[in-house]
Amino acid sequence: MDIKQRIKSLASRYAEDTIAVRRHLHAHPELSFQEYETSRFVFDKLSELGLEPIQEIAETGIVAIIEGKDPEKRVIALRADMDALPIVEENNIPYRSVSKGIMHACGHDVHTASLLGTARILNELRNDFEGTVKLIFQPGEEKAPGGASKMIAEGVLENPAPQAILGQHVMPQIPVGKVGFKSGVYMASADEIYICVKGKGGHAAMPDSIIDPVLITSHLIVALQQIVSRNANPKIPTVLSFGKVIANGATNVIPDEVKVEGTFRTLNEEWRIRAHDKMKFMAESIARGMGAEIEFEILKGYPFLYNHEALTDRSRVLAIDYLGNDRVVDLEIWMAAEDFAFFSQHIDSCFYRLGVGNENKGIVSSVHTPTFNIDEDALETGTGLMAWLTFNLLKEN
Predict the structure, then answer these.
(1) Rg of the Cα trace of the chain?
(2) Please, which residues have CB within 8 angstroms of residue 360's CB and are 6 or more apart in sequence?
(3) What is the pLDDT of residues 314-352, one digit of tens each?
(4) Which residues contact 118 (CB under 8 A, 6 or more apart)?
(5) Residue 218: which residues within 8 A CB-CB, separation 6 or more?
């Protein structure tokens, strides 16, 4: 039996166990940087495989090494994130979340279970490849500053230093059994915007005696859209959205202040910094010109995610070889963000999508929703494909 068939056979043999791992993780989700039980569970599963060394990093992160023959020849890193979201699950399933108000609504349970399954396959094949596989189980993807940045700061890309890193992410818009790839710039940077407009509140029937922060904020929100429509290069996708406005007044009461929260996303670092300056200058000018004070804070988040062309193109070819041409799709740029982007700024990276949707089973909900779920057949695809990619990429120069 050749290596490809051995990997497929192992992925099939371990599929039931991988599904059980995913269901356990799904039922016991933990929020960003609070993944203590998840981390312990992963630690124990890796220990059962006899993997050494296993290292705790970034508090709840785990790193493990699988050494093949000639371990120093080449190192490939594989990453899975472990945290969940503050969402109340609405799925009626046996493994529904038992953690109140917390849910694996972005598929990180799938990523973690899949990487554990891949580790199991590669560990069994360690005498058949040269080089080293570095397994990275990362905390805090959903919360800035992001677990990836913390792990990098604490040396996860050293000792041994990988030449490339792979990551996969569920995508319900892609049918189960298929995967998607996009070379080059793929996902956006993401910054959080926090604004507080301070005026002078009072009776709504006496506008001449107040400085109305509600009116000023409305001008500000509309005007800031010029950053996108009149300043951004049309060739650089840019998004500015405000999702939270708090003006705690009443029908006849103007409050003293209004608070606003939003997000800014783009695909170019130079423009990103210039846009920050333009937004702040415009907001301060409008507020002060209308008699108010303003606090304008931008929390710089994840950078844009860049998929190394040669690595991603090679991975796509390998995926076609493993799954078939009809099961590998091309992806478009997506303005969502991922802290895997931090890895992509340091080493050659490929972040691809794992199809988990199935209309016939009613599995169609998007990520970050209370009804998100997956067709669990995707786990066999995910474990086998990542093992196949890794096995072959270890042979690259």
Answers:
(1) 24
(2) none
(3) 999 999 999 999 999 999 999 999 999 999 999 999 999
(4) 78, 382, 383, 386, 387, 390
(5) none
**pLDDT of amino acid 52:** 80
Best CATH choice for the domain 191-299 from the list 3.30.565.10, 3.90.1150.10, 3.30.70.360, 3.30.390.50: 3.30.70.360
User: Six-digit token pair at 160?
Assistant: 């041994």
- Which residue type does 345 have? Q
Answer whether CATH 3.40.630.10 is correct for domain 3-187+304-393. yes
* Nearest residue to 51 (alpha-carbon basis) of 66, 69, 72: 66
- State the Cα–Cα distance between residues 383 and 388, nearest whole angstrom: 9
Q: Which residues contact 206 (CB under 8 A, 6 or more apart)?
A: none
The contacts of residue 240 (CB under 8 Å, 6+ apart) are 224, 225, 227, 228, 262, 263, 264, 265, 279
Residue 352: CA atoms inside 13 Å, Cβ hemisphere, count? 30
Residue range 80-117, pLDDT digits in tens: 999 999 999 999 999 999 999 999 999 999 999 999 99
CATH 3.40.630.10 placement within the chain: 3-187+304-393
Residue span(s) of the chain under CATH 3.30.70.360 come to 191-299
Polymer length in residues for the chain: 397
Q: What is the largest CA-CA distance in the chain?
A: 85
Is the dihedral angle over the CA atoms 198, 203, 204, 209 positive or is it negative?
negative
